[in-house]
């Protein structure tokens, strides 16, 4: 099935990349939450399980496709309604699932996860309202910083705060709260700049 900007039916390359990102989520969760011992990598006085290392590598691959699918769709004029729906869903599903797993693993404050996940779905809802009205909520600079800090936070936490643990710097804790604050602020920024989309009556 193929979809194009004019409504034809195809499953184009951009959509395939987006769907692949969604299918990588349970794979990441498998390595994070299923209890099995693959051993661990010892670095100085710290250890990182190979399961977490594998999860980090898959997460980086999945996160790196964020933006790639959109770029391919725009470049080849293959923007579809399916892509508009799946792309933000895939992004949010990836981040939210890993955050919940980190809470389950007792590596992340539930409050941080709640703040980030709530913001993500609130802004996704705003974008869907905009699409229904034929408008586009453009990505802001704060939104880009939000994404960067979230990805950095997840990677550092999954690597057990490596390499900062070697110098006893709690960077994982610091970046968690920085990510939460920037995420919250960027969400407020989106709603303030697009308040015309929100019915007041």
Gross geometry: globular
Number of strand segments: 4
Q: Tell me the major beta sheet.
A: 2 strands, antiparallel
Alpha carbon gyration radius: 18 Å
Task: Give the fraction of residues assigned to helices.
Answer: 55-70%
- How are strands sequenced across the largest beta sheet? 1-2
Q: Helix/strand/pairing class, anyone?
A: mainly alpha
Span between termini: 41 Å
Identify low-pLDDT runs: 1-8
**N to C succession of SSEs:** EEHEEHHHHHH
Question: How much of the sequence is in beta strands?
Answer: 5-15%
Q: Count the DSSP helices.
A: 7
Average predicted local confidence, pLDDT: 85
Pathway: Lipid metabolism; Phospholipid metabolism; phosphatidylglycerol biosynthesis; phosphatidylglycerol from CDP-diacylglycerol: step 1/2
EC number: 2.7.8.5
Main location: membrane
GO molecular function, one term: CDP-diacylglycerol-glycerol-3-phosphate 3-phosphatidyltransferase activity
